[in-house]
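Q: Sequence in, structure out?
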Amino acid sequence: MPQNHLKAVARSPDELLVRGKYFEVAIEKIVLDAEVVNGFPEAVGHFVLFEVVYSNFWEYVISTNSLGALLIDSNGFQHSECSLYNPVIHKAKGLKKGTELQSIAYEVQGQARSAGFLVFPELKKSAVPHRLIFQFQIFEPGQTSGYVQDSEKLELIFDLSLYGRLIGESKK
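A: Exactly. Output:
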């Protein structure tokens, strides 16, 4: 089974996307230090948020949650996507208090898109996001499990020399 590993380097806010044969992931907003209420008012944590749009170019449904997204920080450490319960913004630059953090749909239908937030644990003060890695498994047409016919790995690399611009000028 072949695996497509496609990489894109974001050198400006207009390049915050990576496109493969089946899928495209576009970053709409990056928030480095968001205070998020996780289910209960007293459960506030600090997280890194990416507001994203997943676009399915294939004619059939594709599952988005089989392998989850990975974040590699500028110190080389790998972070797995967090699962939160009814997350709501408590305090975050560029997001209103009380904003509910919508999840990406578990399945994106053929020729459809899904928008939402990816949530990662807080990074050390000296670190910033450097790479985002997404992996999608493609099953028989119309299926979201079973025999994997193809897989696609999409990697978005942030140009660290322009990181301030990427954060300050993300699309929305």
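The two ends are 38 Å apart (CA to CA).
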